[in-house]
Amino acid sequence: MAELKGWKDIPIGGLITEPGSSKKFKTGSWRVMRPVYDRSKCIDCMMCWLICPDMAIIQEDGVMKGINYDYCKGCGNCANICPKNALEMKPETDFQD
Amino acid sequence: MVVEQKKLAITGAEAAAYAMRQINPDVVAAYPITPQTPIVEKFAQYVADGLVDTEMIPVESEHSAMSAVVGAAAAGARAMTATSANGLALMHEIVYIAASSRLPIVMPVVNRALSGPINIHCDHSDTMAERDSGWVQLFAENSQEVYDLIFIALKLAENEDVRLPVMVNQDGFIISHGTEIVEVLPDEEIKKFVGEQKIMYSLLDTKNPVTYGPLDLYDYYFEHKRQQVEAMENARKLFPEITKEYEAISGRKYSYVEPYKLDDAEYVMVALGSTNGTIKYVVDKMRQEGKKVGLLKITMYRPFPKEEIQYYLNGRKGVVVLDRSLSFGAEAPLYAEIKSSLYEVAVKPQIGSYVYGLGGRDITPDMIRKAFEDALKGNLVADEQRYLGLRE
Questions:
Q1: Distance CA B338, CA B319 (A)
Q2: d(CA A53, CA A34)
Q3: Domains plus CATH for chain B?
Q4: pLDDT of B93-142, one tens digit each?
Q5: Residue B91 DSSP code
Q6: Could you give the ipTM of this predicted complex?
Q7: Which residues of B touch A11 (CB under 8 A)?
Q8: Were B145 and a residue from B37, B140, B252, B311 both cysteine, which residue would form a disulfide, CB within 3.0 to 4.6 Å?
Q9: Which CATH class is domain A31-95?
């Protein structure tokens, strides 16, 4: 999230005056479990890309390129559907500095 | 310059409809409910006769009426509706949404007792339930005030620094169905006075798209509420300017409150709505007997005119507050706020709470006199709620 603004600096009525602003809302901050991707097991079947409810699977020309953690909420659907176990869910606490 | 005006013998409901015709709103969505029905009935006639350009939407409920008006106003239309009692209660959810979405909707409300038991006659329980909704609330004493306040309400609602909806309250049947002489301004004067709405954040403005009603959680909801507080303050500041402008063309003066024979008054009654007319009559009678009584009529209830109340009530001997609604288990609404306003005055008067007229029970001059006499005898008890016209 960007820095929060005061009441004098926001549009009235809870209105959103900027189209597409939901892109700025980094929903990945909710995540408790993180999918970790192992390229060596992946067959680029793209099942994870199909099932991801947040379009957080990055692909280029049908090749799996990893996960966009800004938007991945850690639902685990990708890890569940992966036929090769190339995605493993790990607690976020493992990645804290 | 005061304009020459026609005199019409019309009811409060007809006065509201006449004002709406002169405003010529883009959209009116409404559902009939006694005693509001004659407003929309008359207005529908204007639509059918081609006297207005309004898109009239007969909806299936008041919840839908307010929702349709919210949608229309968000699109940038001048949108109006009218209701009473249970209709207002059914709108309740959207009444808050209209205010928090900052939509300048003007709604005549014909005050009627809320069920149950079911009752169609006047009291203020309906509008009091919307007291904290974020709408400006104005109260008319008679049909003339209904007519005048609707234009003042529109101008206030649409001001860029306000952008809040306004309710114009009139007492059910007593005002809405009672024929009185009302002076009306020519159509072109009203057209000039209300002007064109400055359209802000229109849903139809595809070059500047906006989203109304998105999820607003703990990170911004609080800031939006603070903005509504500010808008109410702006409405308070702007009101005298608008009423002055209206006075210039109509010759009729409006303020937050109307002091009546207050200059040397020692005992003051405070009330909302049509009962003020009866109180004036009693004040006149008692003045002839040499009693120093007066009246402070409240025209603007939200924002609450605390400063004016302090100014007019500081140093009086006794203040009698009349409420036409209850707050079960607490003080009646107007009384509670008058009492709270007096906490900070230099010389606190004795103060007493009188509840009257629930469900349309008549309030007679004798009852008003009785309350004044309690004050004159020094028999007011701040923590006691008394009743006028109630059988023991």
A1: 9
A2: 15
A3: 6-250 (3.40.50.970), 257-388 (3.40.50.920)
A4: 999 999 999 999 999 999 999 999 999 999 999 999 999 999 999 999 99
A5: H
A6: 0.90
A7: 201, 210
A8: B140
A9: alpha beta
